[in-house]
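Subject: for your reference before the review

Hello V.,

The reviewers asked for a structural picture of the protein, and I figured it would be easier to keep everything in one thread rather than splitting it across files. Below is the amino acid sequence we used in the manuscript, unchanged from the supplementary table.
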Amino acid sequence: MRNKDPDGFAGLGRPADAPPGPADLNLLRTFLAVHRSGSFTAAARLLGLSQPTVTAQIRTLERQVGRELFERLPRGVAPSPYADELAARVVAPLDALAEVAGDTVPAGQRPADPVHLAGPAELMCLRVLPALAPLVADGLLLRAATGLTDPLLDELRAGRHDLVIATTRPRGRAFSAVPLMDEEFVLTAAPHWAARTGGPENLAARGPAALHGLPLVTYAEDLPIARRYWRHVFGRRLDCRAAVTVPDLRGVLAAVVAGAGFSVLPRYLCAAELASGALVELYVPEDPPINTAYLVQRPGSAVNPQVARVRDLLTEAARAW
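And here is what came back from the structure prediction:
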């Protein structure tokens, strides 16, 4: 009877119930190149192979291990959790073998694994990507994605991202989550709409009734940010239908600046427009609503040291946000 590997592998990358036989080192080398570079095309360049050859080798290895190693994306690929585990196991022996064989590059020049980072589109574009520019200039490979928190956390669980900026704290203990920044919400409109409300004093006296007749601009039909503002500031339910919905807060901001109506926006997003007078803060509550964003890390992503560089820089940069 063949002994079973206690970690569920029979040799490098093979499940315990797979047919016996040595692992194909060429397949594992190709696998590691794809894992490091984040795409079949880039791996092909690194290995001096054609892209169809790399694709065929990965499919062969996937059949051998009985698992999908990479999710094919519109640009590049995302490793599965199993692929991350396999990469962590084979990287040291394969690199050591390559050095012995003399077909490697110095460690400092070895291709780094890309960091897969995701979060809200507005925050990613206005704060996160500019903050990470120095690391990119220093050689960081970054793969950015945007979306809503719940789907992004599901993708994090599936191994598609290394880090996610979430607008809610994830439940359970599967993730490591640290507070990243607080975003304050602002009730705002263009100056001519602000004049129709009678100013902050009238809104303080009459409450949200002073906004009657003003069109609401928001990013979803269920008015998530505006409903939260109404509950927190006015202590009542928002009963209103949006005049405009656009699934990007930058689009909401553009529409409000152009005079489409009023909205509730994160202060960081509209600070310049408030300072210039293009927008007016309709009401200044003593206790403004605040939401905390969290930086969430996938278990096992620490295998890539670049993840720690991104995490540490974002944590430091967020102190100034």
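For the response letter, the relevant points are probably these. The radius of gyration is 25 Å. The chain has three domains: 25-109, 115-175+298-318, 182-290.

Happy to draft the paragraph if you're swamped.

O.
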